[in-house]
Amino acid sequence: MTAMLKSEQYSNFVSPNLKGVHSYFKTKEAQDWRIKNYLVFCLEEDKLILPWAVVYDDWQRSLKILVKASAKQIPGSVRAFCADLIKIDSTVEGIIVLETCKNLYKGFRDQFLDLEIDARIQKLETLFSPMDRSKMEQPYNDIDIIRINALNLMYEATSYFGGDVSTDDNISDDEKNEMLLAEVTDGILAKKLSEVGKGVARYNVIFIPENIIPRATFYEEWQTLEKIFSQKEEEITSKISSPIKEVENILDKYREALVNATHRGYVKLDSVFIDYDFQNGFEFQRNWLEYWVNNVYWKFLICFSLSKHVLIDGSSSEYQYRDWFVNLLLEDLFLDINCHIRLKTGEVENIHRKNQKILSNLSDDRQHIDWYHDGILTVDINGVEEYIGILEVVGNAVVEDHIKMVSDRDKILKAMRLALFQLEQIFRCNGMNDEKQLQNNLETFGILVYGRHFIIYAMHYYEGLYLVDETDLSFILPSTPMELYLVEGIIKRLLVFRARVEYLRTWIQTQIRLADTTTRHLRRITTPVMLSPGTPNVNQRFARINGPTRNRE
């Protein structure tokens, strides 16, 4: 959680003359006591650029003295604010801020240890004073560029968490929209982005919402990446046809029943239950979606009829939550087409990851290679199951575990990246090496269930980068009977998601058939193609796409 000064009354408070407290706290207002502002002050005022450990210890020691001071000397809200600042390394956000400041301060000190203080102050004033873009683009020497980039990155990245910095950006929306996409997607930028930050960035995975460090470093490029992702989402969405029409009748009946059963903030649940009559009898392939919609409504109605249910009970387990709602909404959605699209749930091993680890291990390496997910969405491609979606459930419906959420999300991103790579290999092994073709409709999905939030991510390949962002298919489960009207929207979004998965499989199958036809035609007029005896085993799996099919263990 971001440290906040809870009372604006003391935002202008300065520390009294307490022994051991740094002069910064005695001259600067409490609202400016964060680490980023303290570091800028030290760079402006100190004649020597002290080592990071010394500067950080001084900041921490001063805060601890202020926390222990009496209420007469330091107001309670200010002491609480100082206590939160001391615990900066107790949260994920704080660790990011601290590591960013630490690395950049140390790099700054190494570069400018001998810089004169007057020149330092002049550059800092230039850096943080309001300026227009034309002024920022004035030529600088190499030292200036390194210095400004370092401090600007530190300032902007830390400002993301509770900072008060305001940026002056005179670029209009029209000018931003006219930026050339090619400028941001070249190999050089991809390499830079992969080198900045940690974790999934090493795999060229660009998680657009929360990659704070690259966003601060490549602000304009990041905006373009967001635009690219949005364009690809719009292109794909325009091509799919949702099966909502198949369930319009039952949705209308439940909508009407809810309206009639609701009076002055109270829902008479018994009046909402519908004994739905399937016309001409029930046929699995024809009526499954209507049956599924009916099940979804009944599950919520039964849940809200209980005095204690999984959507509000903190003692319920993750497995109970999955059984009640996660599997119902996600696994059952594909049951009528499970011959070619299936969501495996439980503790599902990622075979791609296992094979990757086995191939990379030495003969005597006992490295742990198991990697399990709460669910894997698979599609049948010429008899071979390929991964296109990963599901992770953080806990029950009321869980608040940010650290585990981030860990599961990173796990999803890595698995999405590996799944998309496997799909790319299918294309390349079938003679489709055109980058434009690969980045046309190819995508993988990630579903993160955190509390009642169902977050659906999509990953698109574009010029060496793997762009990931949340789609507009995400939703939140209702927690009270008065929120039952949300169920209709949830059903419609899931049906769009199902249609999108079906479209992806159909498109892949079509492209492979076209490539296979072209290959057979070429072989009639050319010499036979001999396989190299040195072909690695890892590629043999993809060769089965055009050959006889068999079940994979």
From TrEMBL:
Protein name (database record): 2772_t:CDS:1
Organism: Acaulospora morrowiae
